[in-house]
Amino acid sequence: TSNNIDAHESNPRRQQTIDMADQLAGMAASGAMAASMSMADVDLPGEEGENKRSKISKLFDLLTWGLLTATVAFSGIAMLFNPLIVVFVAFGIAIVNSVIAGGQRVKLMQMETLRAAHNQLRDEVNKFMDENDKLQQSNDELELEVSKVEEVEKGLQDIVAAQGQSVETFVEAVKENQRIINEIKKNLTANIVQDLTRLVLAADRDRDMQIDPEEVFQLKFRLNNMEGVELDEDKLEAKLDEEGYNLGAVMNVIKDLMSDDVPDGEKIIQVNVDKMQKKL
Questions:
Q1: Phi–psi pair at 271, nearest 5 degrees
Q2: Is the pTM of this model over 0.85?
Q3: Does the UniProt entry include the keyword Membrane (predicted)?
């Protein structure tokens, strides 16, 4: 009799446990399905707010998997306390729903990954399109420059054709003209060198082959007043300090003027032939 009373008292408790597990499992399964399906409209990131949606996506991931786990756990508890076929079928359906919800969640996660990859690919395509536009613009500019060059070439051909000459003859004439100009420059430079030599010799008034300080002052004054001559006074002073105040040092300066081995930037005296030609 005592055992019957205990069994009778335990049955309501057992039934309450089963009912509670049933309700919790049903709520968990419904919540998991809702959490999984709700992300169909929210979870896919667009071009704006992608970081914010990514955080929401993670939150719904945790919520979905937590509810799915609770569904399976409560279903197992209910089947453990009441191992009947009806209970197994009912909670088996809940477990199947949980698996379906989990599958939907995985698909949505994959769709999110694919969407992010699609957005990245679209950004790359936009960059390539921008680069293509820049290249097209450069190509248009080059075509314009080529057209200008062709117009100039055509103009030259028209000029030489009007004179009854070929382009080759015209080019040869230009080269010959340049050669003549170079010869004129050499002759002008040679004349200036002669004038410089006479000027340096005249600067040595006492004929002692030395350039005294007062004679150096007169020399620089006359050099600066020569047409077409450009003097670097600081370099001249440094040259005389190094080699001595004598005519030989000054003549070396003039010799460097005619030498092709000395760069123009290192020459103490330079000749502006163009200025001389304008004067002529």
A1: -110, 125
A2: no
A3: yes
